[in-house]
Amino acid sequence: MRFTRAFIPTTKETPNDAVLPSHIYLTRGGFIAQVASGLYNFMPLGLRVLHNIENIVREEMANAGVHEVNLAFVTPASLWEESGRLEKFGKELLRFRDRKENLFVLGPTHEEMMVSLVRNRVSSYKQLPLNLYQMTSKFRDEARPRFGLMRGREFLMKDGYSFHATHEDMVREFHLMEATYKKILTRLGLEFRVVEADSGAIGGSGSKEIMVLANSGEDTLAVCSSCEYGANVEAAKRQRLKAPASTGIAKAEKVHTPDTTSIEALSHMLKVDSYYTIKAVAKLAIFNEGSQVVLFFVRGCDELQEVKAANAVGANSLEDVDAAQLEALGLSVGFIGPKDFGKLTVVYDVELQSASSMVCGANEKAYHLTGFDMATVSNAIFKDIATVREGDACPHCGASMHYTKGIECGHIFQLGDTYSKPLQAHFLDENGKAKPFIMGTYGLGISRLVAAIVEQHHDEKGCKWSSATAPYRINIMISNTKDEAQNSAGEALYAALLAKGESVILDDRNERFGFKIKDAELIGFPYTIIFGNALTEGNVEVLHRQSDTKHIVPVSTIESYLSEQL
Ligand code: ATP
Ligand code: MG
């Protein structure tokens, strides 16, 4: 490709809402163009990067024996009613009616569609296992589309679905997909970590996320400093906390504690470590049908983890409640403590199991209890609902854990029969008995990966693509297009590389050198070969974008030099 014939609208303008380097450079470098909130056009350079990623994914999927399909983007709402997700997915699902008033949904993920494709077509255990994938547009009407390709409304996802006769076979495939995703990310030159995850709206149990490590990542990961263990904080586990050196308050009494509606004020007044206090958090739990106030209790030194807490009560999400709503339920806001609340749903964090000598609200304005023993609470339900903190002990090896930030690029699930059962997708086992398929599902954000690569590989000048991902691997730049020698030598190398099938672009624009080099740096070609003044001595300059260094190479050896580099 020649720059003079290409469509590469680079610009100095930074989009108003752009904060992330990937959003800024992909827009400024002429890779993508925004159409509306969360909607992007891919221009030629962006599409070439996307295709590079797709090709690597296709190769690795083929190596793993997975077949590609392409399912309709518009999906009948009736399928979503069958699975029960029409409600659960909420406003992210874009719904519309056709001319015959039939309700449809733009596919945000395709479990229902894939199950409906396979059910009644695969009917015997002899046809299993089966693993199918597609790489197609998805639409989610995200509440806050942002960060360019990172969180779009329309985006490209590779989504795969496997069907098995047994749980063991599904787990085998799950491990194969994890290994395959690791290969893909390694080929893309990404530093990543596979972590345990919450299963969210997709459902099922046993899920892992593939996290590209970057400070700009939206996800917080709790990772062990010693072993392999890592998890999204939404799902992270820990060992029981070590009690501090100080003790709690053994004496059971009701104490007057005005103005102590915070744990900090309470532990200060009673001179007790917040570990020995109990914090109440009231939330409005949102269910498929309606909502309900629920109470959670954690140690005062802990925070409620909302995703874990929502899962603990089977809610889709949690929202804040105002004091008036709680007072109306007879709760003494700021002084709520553990007790049998009757009909009200209450969950205690596992840390509180068998806790004693505690300080907690007395369920009476301006009073707390000391010497409280959790064993006195009847019908208490204990679940893991607290946030793992930095320094907490790894559940596997006990070493200290710390936080790091990640971009979720892949998510793989052990689904079981979560979809096959409601959608009545059955096969006949060896004994001729009908059973629902045991499924796994595997998502990879292809367009998000474009952004993630730039997040990990850029500098203050622009992108730094690797040879595997670059829109063009080699950029031949003619410094002064009016110079005959520079022109003919540049053209000759361009023709030679094209003949070899190399991914090459020729910057033959009649522009200043400074302007062209800025574009080369912004776009981030791995190698820029400059035909300039050095040519009078028989040399070219080679700019290595990854290391941002320049090398003088004799023009006579440039082809072999490039073959070695690539
Ligand atoms: P997130 O927590 O970031 O919203 P998710 O849990 O909703 O992601 P999945 O439903 O597991 O994501 O989708 C599979 C993959 O699709 C994700 O790992 C991510 O790479 C990609 N993806 C999801 N939502 C978006 C989006 N709005 N824009 C771009 N890629 C996305
Ligand atoms: Mg999401």
Describe the overall structure.
There is one protein chain. The protein has 566 residues and is α+β, with helices and mostly antiparallel strands. The protein folds into three domains: 3-237 and 402-455, 2-Layer Sandwich (BirA Bifunctional Protein, domain 2), CATH 3.30.930.10; 253-383, YbaK protein, CATH 3.90.960.10; 474-565, 3-Layer(aba) Sandwich (Rossmann fold). The chain contains 13 helices and 31 strands. The strands form eight sheets. Strands 3, 7, 8, 9, 10, 11, 12, 21 and 24 form a nine-stranded mixed sheet that branches. A five-stranded mixed sheet has the order 16-14-15-17-20. Strands 28-27-29-30-31 form a five-stranded mixed sheet, with helices on both faces. A hairpin with a 7-residue loop joins strand 29 and strand 30 (539-544). The radius of gyration is 29 Å and the shape is globular. The model has no long low-confidence stretch (mean pLDDT 96). Adenosine-5'-triphosphate binds next to strand 8, strand 21, strand 24 and helix 10.
Give a summary of the structure in a few sentences.
The protein has 566 residues and is α+β, with helices and mostly antiparallel strands.
Query: How many helices does DSSP assign?
Result: 13
C-alpha Rg (nearest Å): 29 Å
Overall form = globular
And the CATH topology of the largest domain? BirA Bifunctional Protein, domain 2
Separation, N- and C-terminal Cα atoms? 19 Å
Please, how many domains? 3
Mean pLDDT: 96
- Uncertain regions: pLDDT < 50 for 5+ in a row? none
- From the coordinates shown, what is the CATH architecture of the largest domain? 2-Layer Sandwich
Percentage of β-strand residues: 25-35%
Bound molecule types: adenosine-5'-triphosphate, magnesium ion
SS elements, strand count: 31
Helical residue percent band: 10-25%
Structural class: alpha+beta
